[in-house]
Amino acid sequence: MSEEEKQKEKQEQVEEKVPHSDRTSKLMDGMMKGLRDFGSVAMEKAEAYGKIASNKAEELTKMGKIKLDIHQMNRSRAKQLSDLGELVFNLGTDDKLAELGAHENYVALVKSIADLNSQIKEKEALHVHVEKLENDDEVKD
Questions:
Q1: Which residues does 53 contact at the CB level (< 8 Å), separation at least 6?
Q2: Model confidence over 60-83: pLDDT tens digits?
Q3: Neighbouring residues of 105: CB distance < 8 A, sequence distance ≥ 6
Q4: Are the beta carbons of 97 and 78 closer than 8 angstroms?
Q5: pLDDT at 18 over 50
Q6: What is the pLDDT of residue 28?
Q7: Among 61, 81, 106, 109, whose Cα sits 20 to 30 Å from the Cα of 72?
């Protein structure tokens, strides 16, 4: 083969590769665009699910705080009832039950227990309300 024939053959090989190269380039560009689109969609979905998870965590935190408050108030109420029982017992053993209504600790404990009862009822109503709102939100989603 002469030098010219070799050059011509190389040129033909290069020309054959160029269209192939263009197809490969277009294919790669298409794949890259598809990956970018997929990445964008995945990122949007992740953001949406992140917001949902954040809202759910916030609702659960609110519910947990309300339940904790109710529990603490119930413990405080139980302690005060215990103190009231001890006071009544002590007055009973000293035969001073007739003075129970005038005793300052008795009046303070009874008032405090009554206040706690109403606070507990309010918190329980709030708990039911928040739980209902949460269930309504879940139905909408």
A1: none
A2: 899 999 999 999 999 999 999 999
A3: 83, 87
A4: no
A5: no
A6: 82
A7: 106
